[in-house]
Write a structure and sequence with these properties.
The protein is mainly alpha-helical. The protein contains 3 helices and 2 strands. It has one domain. It has a two-stranded antiparallel sheet with strand order 1-2. α1 packs across α2. The radius of gyration is 11 Å and the shape is globular.
């Protein structure tokens, strides 16, 4: 079993949501834009798992 990191990648997000990797990158880009507007440092191609869970599951 793979160790779960604090960031989720596009490939992992695509598998989790059942979408293409390209679509997962678009979702990550949107979430990173939201974080950047709030003043957070973002990393291309990955998003904090906690933020993804807040946005998708609440």
């Amino acid at each position: 079993m793979m160790k779960q990191t604090s960031f989720i990648t596009a490939a992992e997000l695509a598998a989790m949501l059942g979408v293409s990797v390209g679509h997962a990158y678009k979702i990550i880009h949107q979430l990173n834009d939201e974080l950047a507007q709030k003043g957070y440092l973002t990393f291309s191609g990955r998003v904090p798992r906690k933020y993804l869970e807040e946005r998708c599951y609440n």
